[in-house]
Amino acid sequence: MATPLQPKSAPAMQVPLLDLKLQYEPLAREIQEAIGRVCASQHFILGPQVKELEGAIASYSQCRFGIGVSSGTDALLLALMALGIGPGDEVITSPFTFFATAGTIARAGARPVFCDIDAATFNLSPAAVEAFVAGQCEMRAGVLTNKRTGGRVRALMPVHLYGQVADMDPLMAIARRGSLKVIEDAAQAIGAADAQGRRACSFGDIGCLSFFPTKNLGAFGDAGLCVANDASLAERMEVLRVHGGKPKYYHALIGGNFRIDELQAAVLNIKLRHLDAWSAARQRNAAFYDAAFARAQLGAAVRTPVANPGGRHIYNQYVIRARDRDALRAHLAGAGVGTEIYYPVPLHLQQCFAYLGGSAGDCPESERAAHETLALPIFPELRETQLQYVVDTVAAYYRR
């Protein structure tokens, strides 16, 4: 054992959870020139770079219209505002997701309703949503109503978690029967598709994307985008993102300042050209992990991600289920391997949502995932020697 005079030796290898410098270096000159052109133009708000990005992302997501916004969080909030969701309304969503999913529902004045996840994919379970609608709701004057709270259930907000499309066909069927609007939280899933090739954001009324720097398509700060197929809904979002003013200084609506920066759009336009190659590299890394963990024969100690057959999983994260997750994470950290826990506390158990009356046991699959899941490095520039080192380090923990 090491003593204070004999420090531990350095890890054999460093494998960070993410290293954005490796992505930036080959693009540095092109990005700097694009930023320089924006600076020379002095057109920083809703300029030609934003217009180009909106069209390109909409097309990439199999949608007609794109509305660039200031963050993925603001994309969700803008979607809720555009659909008129507010006090007295309820929105069904997942408790196993980033806080913004439910946080924006509450900020809009509505009530989040949490339904559990599918154990295999971590996405919102259609069976859980169906059970809530069938068991706790009824139609009143043509409006789906929560019998316990009296709230109007107005929308469904599935999350395409970790880069895999949720099971949208049954979710959309539930939405149609209940006359629910559908907002897709695709913050981690740009370009993900189901087995029919339908991309994230193309199913519902509005799709919401995040370009936070750590995402598969990341900006140089906060940025996001909404996509839609309905022209009037897209125009409403365009107006709401500039304080609800149209024309300028004339306000029929109360909106917010949700504009995307021209500089961020310029960076994203360059990065978008490389997104498919980066996604393919993530898929190769995931396949390497899958095969290497299978060779390691760790049994039930480690379960690798489940990808829906025929779908396009873009692996924003590679998340395993692991026995003794926290101890394994400490072991990996000591060996120089970066990891993350997405998410340690399901939203129905967060202190700020105590007013909703949730308690342990309400969403057992979400709670189990919160205690078992661990994200491993998956970014495109990883070398196979690094990937194998991660697997070997995991295996060493369970074999010691």
How does this structure look, described?
This protein is of the alpha/beta class and 400 residues long. The protein has two domains: 249 residues, Aspartate Aminotransferase, domain 2 (3-Layer(aba) Sandwich); 125 residues, Alpha-Beta Complex (Aspartate Aminotransferase, domain 1). The strands form three sheets. The protein has a seven-stranded mixed sheet with strand order 1-9-8-7-6-2-3, with helices on both faces. Strands 10-11-12 form a three-stranded antiparallel sheet. β6, α7 and β7 form a beta-alpha-beta unit. The N terminus is likely disordered.
Kindly report the average pLDDT value: 97
The CATH architecture of the largest domain can be given as: 3-Layer(aba) Sandwich
3D shape = globular
Number of domains as seen in the coordinates: 2
Backbone structural class: alpha/beta
Strand adjacency order, main sheet: 1-9-8-7-6-2-3
**Uncertain spans:** 1-7
Strand content: 5-15%
What is this structure, in a nutshell?
The protein has 400 residues and is α/β, with parallel strands linked by helices.
